Prior knowledge:
This protein is of the alpha+beta class. The strands form two sheets. The chain has a four-stranded antiparallel sheet with strand order 2-3-1-4. Strands 5-6-7 form a three-stranded mixed sheet, covered by helices on one side. It has three domains: about 35-130, Alpha-Beta Plaits (2-Layer Sandwich), CATH 3.30.70; about 140-340; about 380-460, 2-Layer Sandwich (Alpha-Beta Plaits), CATH 3.30.70. The chain starts with about 20 loop residues before the first helix and ends in a 6-residue tail after the last strand. The chain is built from 16 helices and seven strands. The chain has helices spanning about 20-25, 50-60, 90-95, 120-125, 135-145, 150-170, 175-185, 185-200, 200-230, 245-250, 255-275, 280-300, 305-335, 345-350, 350-395, 435-450, and strands at about 35-45, 65-70, 75-85, 105-110, 405-410, 420-430, 455-460. Mean pLDDT is about 75; it is low at about 1-35.
Amino acid sequence: MAGTVPDTERFDRKHVGNTFNGVNAFIGLKPGVLYSSVRQIELFVPDDRSDDALSVLDDEGIDYVRTAEAGDGTDGELVSFPLPPQAVERVLSSLREAGIDDQFVVVSSIETARTPRIDELEERYVNGQEEDDSIAHEEIRSRAMNMTPGRVTYYAMTVLSAIVATAGLLLDSPAIVVGSMVIAPQVSAALTGTVGLVLDDREMVIDGLTSLAFGLGVAIVSAFVFAWIVRSGGVVPSTIDITAIVQVQNRISPGLLAIVVGICAGAAGAFGLATAIPVSLVGVMIAVALIPAAAAVGIGMAWGDPSVALGAFVLVAVNATSILFSGLAVFWYLGYRPDGWTRGSIRENLSSEWVDTLAVAVVLGVIVLSMGGLVLGQYVLYENSVNDEVRTVLDDDEYADLELVEVRTEFVGVGVDDESAVTVVVQRPADAPYPNLVADLETTLEDRTDRDVAVVVEFVDAGRSTEA
């Protein structure tokens, strides 16, 4: 039969041995139609379940090849068939519901496949009413594991990305910071841990979370060592105010928008891994939320500035937790559940191991998010107080000609008593002096916030064109 096209739409072939050539069954059967990114499924079906399995495939309009197999005292056949990636989970679920044991299932990628009815499957699952980008549980587990590089590669790339990020922050160069995100490997650890949580795979959870935690620790230490060498070697003046560097400022004030980045990064990573969408760019998004902030922690430690180190560390911890939980939520929304999960029966699904794993993750997450919420809340209250008092001072008749342009506040951490900096940008009539403005602002802000505040006023001179 190899190389011929049967009259029927189903391929029935009994064969024992190793001479079966599956390529002849799937390639060259539909001239003029070419499909790519196809999954080939190989499923062992015992003889007593053969009719049920073939009935499911016939109902789904799937072309298949049957090969007789015998082993371990069980007679049966190996059923092979090509599917679009989006159809794999649906078909395997239908086979399970029909009582087909899936202890031996192989899902592999093939370049092209042509069968009489695969165009109909493509139309249904890619372009039609049953369009769905979700991939099978088996494939998402495999993709998550395959994303993880070897330990040497993982930590080496982490060190390199942290060094590049540190250099980019100190140079105040967004382009270099982006470069550090491209080579950062944290996406593999974050998504492996999240997939392990949703599929109840404790080994994946432990491997993913420990790799993420140790990786971020290595990134912080690497950034600290590099920043210390740069500072000690005079490459960057040791007296430089690192909080005045815009790229550093953006990582030491964990505002709400910065946390939103972490949430969106985790959600995007989950969508990328759980669907047919490539995840390469998603890795950059996850690195955006982690690597530059980790580098800022190392810079703060190297410069002996606890407010910078604490602010950036809180941002790293909160974003890492946000990535994990938002990814978990997306996987759950897409219908991924632990193996053996029964819909509509929550109590039966709550195994002690899965509950214990999830409980530990939730408790740790709540602790981190609570800490982040405390710092964020303090920062928001501080920032609001500063903005209110600056406007109050400028409302005085003495400063009636001034117009507020911008107020920049440095992050003030919990339990950090260092003097905080506030930069006030105002527009004034050309060259008009306001010698008392700085003192008035400092006095008012210190009275309101009960902290030592260093105020910097930047004037923007207003001008008017003399042309008619």
